[in-house]
Amino acid sequence: LMLSITDQRSGDPIKEFELVHDKLMHVIIVGEDLSYFAHIHPTIRHGNDDDTAFAISHTFPESGKYKLWVDFKPKGGNQTLAAFKLNVIGKPVHSPEELVHDGKYTKDSLDGQYQISLKVPTKIVAQNDVDITFNISDSSRRPITNLEPLMAAGGHSVIISSDLKEFLHVHPTEEVDVKWRGGPDVSFKTSFPKPGLYKAWGQFQHQGKVITATGFILQVT
What we know:
With 221 residues, the chain is an all-beta fold. The chain is 0% helix and 43% strand. Strands 11, 12, 14, 15 and 16 form a five-stranded antiparallel sheet that branches. It starts with a strand and ends with a strand.
């Protein structure tokens, strides 16, 4: 995938960008039923005068419908979020999974080497500030206390509504420096724009490797 950005008024290509959480661009890809999640940082390519684009090489695991969000900040401009829908063809074909509030707040990481718990209020109310805390331990449930900074923070969280209309790119309550080592708890503050079901993913770094928590399903009233 190639992503190029132009000024809406002039149509001129935008060539300079500011870092957003330590990266020039974040791309989040989810399956239509939120069973699939990927968080990618495209590489910027400067070609001739009019050619500045971001490149992504990504393998979609199954055919089906996906939604992709692009988060970036032009130099001197506003942080911007754009969304695209993709239809991926081929084999294997994805079997849709129904999103249900399962009440499970401890899950394995995608690689199975860590266990992640999520602490949320027993009742989450739309448009109210909510504290959410991820707790990271190894597969033997020993707390991880030497997490490393990920994108200049203790961790990152993405929360998406079941209708794919609400996208929350959530960052911890405090930024950290490169020497930070922490855990097992990483806390975030956010608010949910409307009631409904949401899915929340957390990402953290340990010993140079990114840990992605399998998504947690949240009910918002």
